[in-house]
Write a structure and sequence with these properties.
This protein has helices at about 20-30, 50-60, 75-80, 80-90, 100-105, 110-120, 130-135, 180-190; strands spanning about 5-10, 40, 65-70, 90-95, 125-130, 140, 160, 170, 195-200, 200-205, 210-215, 220-225, 230, 245, 250-255, 260, 265. Helices cover about 25% and strands about 25% of the residues. The strands form four sheets. Strands 3-2-4-5-1-10-11-16-17 form a nine-stranded mixed beta sheet, sandwiched between helices. A four-stranded mixed beta sheet has the order 8-9-12-15. It is an alpha/beta fold. The protein is built from eight helices and 17 strands.
Length: about 280
């Protein structure tokens, strides 16, 4: 069973230590070590990783955390002893925003990511991300930009993510950029995958022991669940043909709500999430 924790943010977060999402991240980081937590910042997704790394370093150091910026510019460097040692010495990791393909193309399959994943599975390390830094955390991720024709077979590009979260796809800036059709599209073509749309200023805090997550922040998280799809023409379609699908379930969660992703159940604040339905 995975021992680590993930806090996935939907982007649009103010880089201030009093922001609820970063307070959540800081508090989690402080609980997993007896001393001062060391946070590794991975700004690979950014178009200007040096500046982004400095911004996040200032943010985390403002609450007395130790920091290190892991910013390899080549895969050889990401496979090297320096990056691996930084990963071994850190208590928490934060993937910044930008474009998720920069992360997966440069870091996917490297010793750096293998080290982080091994520690995430075996130790109580914390992984956070925002925008592209959240999108890349799943096994399969959305890699392309917005599509002009939603619900058309083959028009959403998917590729391999970093694989910290199985059987999910994350989309960010979700409500603000009208990305609901994109997740429905993904789930209709991949019914065994749950789609998670995170709004700006909002985060999902994962508990892998309980197999659920809770929502914090000012917006909402949408869960698009295709496990009960009853009608679907996707298997018969040619590229560019329109989709017909029925039986998709949608859950919308605001701050304090929880979602049991194993049983596809949501719980409002105050409801007892430990008494789950037997399925």
């Amino acid at each position: 069973m995975t021992k680590g924790c993930i806090i996935a943010m939907g982007g649009g977060v103010d880089l201030r230590p009093d922001t609820p999402l970063f307070k959540e991240f800081f508090n989690k980081a402080q609980k997993i070590t007896e001393g001062t937590p060391k946070i590794a910042i991975i700004p690979t997704a950014s178009a200007n990783p040096s500046n982004t790394g400095k911004e996040y370093r200032q943010l985390f150091e403002s609450v007395s955390a130790e920091t290190v910026v892991i910013n390899p510019d080549r895969r050889k460097e990401a496979n090297g002893e320096g990056c691996v040692q930084d990963a071994l010495d850190s208590d928490a990791f934060f993937f910044t925003g930008g474009h998720q393909l920069r992360i997966t193309a440069l870091l996917g399959g490297t010793e750096l990511i293998k080290t982080i994943k091994k520690r995430f599975e075996e130790e109580e390390v914390l992984i956070g991300g925002t925008s592209a830094g959240s999108v890349c955390l799943t096994n399969m991720m959305i890699s392309g930009d917005l599509i002009s024709r939603p619900f058309v077979h083959g028009h959403v590009e998917l590729t391999q993510g970093l694989g910290f979260i199985p059987d999910m796809v994350i989309d960010t800036h979700f409500m603000e950029r009208g990305r609901f059709p994109r997740l429905i599209h993904v789930v209709s073509e991949n019914p065994g995958t749950q789609g998670l749309g995170i709004g700006e200023g909002t985060a999902m805090v994962w508990n892998f022991e309980k197999k659920d997550f809770r929502v914090v922040g000012r917006g909402t998280v949408a869960v698009v669940d295709g496990g009960q799809i009853s009608k679907n023409n996707a298997p018969e379609l040619e590229f560019g043909e329109p989709i017909s699908v029925g039986g998709i379930y949608v859950f919308v969660l605001s701050s304090g709500a929880r979602y049991d992703y194993e049983n596809s159940e949501m719980f409002l604040p105050g409801e007892d999430a430990d008494h789950r339905s037997e399925k």
